[in-house]
Amino acid sequence: METAGPAEGLRLEIEPGWLKGKADGDIESPETYEVSVQVEKLNPAAREAVLAYLEEDPQALYRLLAGQDAPWLDELAPSPLRGGELAAEARCTCGRADCAHAAALLAAAARRLAAEPLQQLTLLGLPREALLAGVFDAWAKAAPPAAGGSAAESAARAKEKGPSGPSPGEWVAEAAAEGRLHRPGPQLRELAVQLSPPPSADQLGPAGDWTGLLPGVRGASKALALIARGAAKQADQKRRSLKPPSP
């Protein structure tokens, strides 16, 4: 029976500046080993070069986010796994130098970076969130101002033009000071509403199509008719209680 080698039982994690993994042991030593390798991040100049390249080439950014090939990384942000020097710097809880767990970690990381170029930038200290924030910020700064200019320019133009009359705020403040906010205008008294008496309760027709809203309910038509008659009586009583306006 063949046991799973370190490469087969490795769980890889890629963080900015770190490769980390957990490797399952074998039958003789079933313990789980933790192995890690620290990687040098991009310096500020290299980081800005990557952002500037993607700022000028949106298609390259799209291909990078889609997991497609990014050959420009070889020049601007080469893989730190080349050369094999990192194997000697790996640290593993098994305690052995240049152990198989470290070799499995680097091999798995190389396959991951080849399949997902964006992970290479994450390892070098430029994860997806920081990458998009840098590119979008550069695009926003390079975008032309909206039609009409900025808010500061609009305010300056309005100040130079000068007011043509009281502003709405000044008009409301003046009306409030004089007590005219809640005073009805002269046209309010010209309104007249004629209330014709409703038909008597006995003259009300059937409930109409409302019964269709209550399918299968026995007596729905009769109940709705009673409600309509009651509402009509209350409306008639309310009408009689109103005093006619004085001439």
Account of the protein in words:
- 45% of the residues lie in helices and 8% in strands.
- The chain is an alpha+beta fold and 247 residues long.
- It has a domain at 10-142.
- Strands 1-2-3-4 form a 4-stranded antiparallel sheet.
- Helix 5 (100-115) packs across helix 6 (117-123).
- Residues 1-7 and 154-163 have low confidence and may be disordered.
Which key phrases capture this entry?
247 residues, 4-stranded antiparallel beta sheet, 10 helices, 45% helix, disordered N terminus, metal-binding, SWIM-type domain-containing protein
Short description:
Helices cover 45% and strands 8% of the residues. It has ten helices and four strands; from the N terminus they run βββααααβαααααα.
The biggest sheet, with number of strands, parallel, antiparallel or mixed sense and barrel status, is: 4 strands, antiparallel
Shape verdict = elongated
Overall helicity: 40-55%
Q: Report the C-alpha radius of gyration, rounded.
A: 40 Å
The residue-averaged pLDDT reads: 75
| Strand residue percentage | 5-15%
β-strand number: 4
Q: How many angstroms does the end-to-end distance come to?
A: 112 Å
Low-pLDDT parts are 1-7, 154-163
What's the number of helices? 10
Strand order of the largest sheet: 1-2-3-4
Question: Helix and strand succession?
Answer: EEEHHHHEHHHHHH
Structural class: alpha+beta
